[in-house]
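Page 47, continued from p. 46.
Same chain as before, 135 aa.
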Amino acid sequence: MTETGKVREVRENLVIVLPDRSAACFGCMNAECKGGAGLITAENPAGLPLGTGQTVEVATRGSSLLGQAALALLPPILGFLLGFNLSGVIFPFTAPDGASAGMGVLFLFAAAFVVYLVRKKHPASKGYKVTKIIA
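Result:
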């Protein structure tokens, strides 16, 4: 995934970039980016001569984003399957399908909440790197 933006700050090997999201974020009307939020912290491994105000392109590997999606989606799915099958173990002959599904949904939300808490405490890094200077 590549994005372009203007360099806001350069700190040794790290670059703070304000993304150019005029068209991409139209759905949220830039509500998430106002007030300084939505900045990208990128590395400058090539040692490009960067200065404040330059337009640069930053990129991250697709496998990094795929891994983050898997870590966000797999635990709730596994939680549902665990809850659905656990209801059959707890109530071997009396658990109707609705109760099994209800317990599966309960475990799904519990697993999703655990993922939320872990990601809130340890946010995932997208691993952006500056690839080239545009202007």
